[in-house]
Amino acid sequence: MSKFLIRLDDIHPRMNHDNFDRLIDLLFKYNIQGILGVIPDNQDPKLMIQNHDLSFWHQMKLLENRGYWIAQHGYQHIYDSNDGGILDLNKQSEFAGHSYDVQKIKLEEGKKILESKGLNPKVFMAPSHSFDNTTVKVIKQFGYAITDGFGLFPKKKDGVLYIPQLFASPTHRDGAVYDMFTHRSNERK
User: Fold this and answer.
1) Domains of the chain by range and CATH?
2) Using one digit for the tens of pLDDT, what is the confidence trace for 52-77?
3) Vertex 121, ends 119 and 126: CA angle to 5°?
């Protein structure tokens, strides 16, 4: 039997609360928990969808208490680098291409915010999937796992746990196994 982990990105007090609440209700219905990528101090204007939800941080703590993992999804979600990082999927980053000191400050400030709201982040989730080897060095100090990259199973490398992301949205494969490396579907016989 296959097991999948649901990862939700771009969670913050001004997100589309209606869509988020519908999805959380669906996950509760099927007793599924996942990783919630919370932006500690969202400053990305493209993500400012609704008014500030005054109960947001309380809701995140309730979800964490129910088994969801809190991921630190960057710091402010501001792309101030054109470095695609290790995965090189996007030419924009909040982390990749910056010095160790700059990345450490962003991670420290973000973690302080999450902890001040009563949350215990366990995972790092880079905005735009862009992080570099310097990010990994900083992450290692924080004891975070990284949710990103390609693969079928989590793996540990240089003391850091990597939890891969297979698909950007729910994908139906009609009993087929999807090979991320060849981008082909192989029907089960």
Assistant:
1) 6-167+176-187 (3.20.20.370)
2) 999 999 999 999 999 999 999 999 99
3) 130
